[in-house]
Design brief:
- This protein is mainly α.
- It folds into two domains: 89 residues, Rna Polymerase Sigma Factor, Chain: A, CATH 1.10.1740; 72 residues, Arc Repressor Mutant, subunit A (Orthogonal Bundle), CATH 1.10.10.10.
- Helix content is 81%, strand content 0%.
- The chain has ten helices and no strands.
- The N and C termini lie far apart (50 Å).
- About 4% of the residues have low confidence.
């Protein structure tokens, strides 16, 4: 598979750096995609899409440090997985799904209220300073462990924990001000 990605990269130096990034980050990328998609095949597709799109622009990012490339790959695979997830959610259900029992209207209303609350909290998280919102997104929306966040961001685990704590405090304040609790 890697030969396909390497074939679109012109410089031998860039090919070597891409191969190094591929080996170092493919597991992290798969795990990131799997947390979003909960499906092995779809996760592999997201990783493939991410590597292919990265290979196509690698000459523009090859000068970056290994940590910056890792961060870039995290964002690219996350976006690829989210796009795939959105595409899958728009697909028509098969006959078996259509024959399942229709849920009670109160269940639907509760789901809508939960979704609306999640969207409000999500927008409050995104309104935080990036150094807090990115960490909180990775921790709570992508369910990453502190150690994984530290690896992706290049921070220490202690710094990640401190940002999670500070970000949560800021978020609590914003939630209270918005009247959500």
């Amino acid at each position: 598979m890697i030969s396909m990605y390497l074939s679109v990269i012109e410089s031998e130096e860039d090919r070597s750096k891409f191969e190094k990034a591929y080996i170092a980050n493919r597991d992290m990328m798969y795990n990131t995609a799997y947390r979003i998609l909960h499906n092995a095949t779809s996760s592999e597709d997201a990783v493939h899409d991410a590597f292919l799109s990265t290979a196509n622009v690698f000459d523009k990012i090859s000068h970056l440090s290994d940590t910056a490339i890792r961060n870039y790959l995290f964002i690219v695979v996350r976006n690829a997985a989210l796009r795939l997830s959105n595409k899958q959610s728009r697909e028509l259900p098969d006959e078996n799904e259509l024959s399942e029992q229709v849920p009670d209207i109160s269940d639907i209303e509760a789901d809508v209220e939960d979704r609306e609350l999640q969207e409000k909290v999500f927008s409050l998280v995104k309104a935080l300073d990036d150094k807090y919102s990115d960490i909180l997104m990775m921790k709570f929306f992508y369910e990453m462990k502190d150690r994984e966040i530290a690896e992706v961001t290049g921070l220490t685990v202690e710094a990640v924990k401190a940002r999670i704590h500070r970000g949560r405090e800021m978020l609590k304040k914003q939630i209270k001000e918005a009247g959500l609790i």
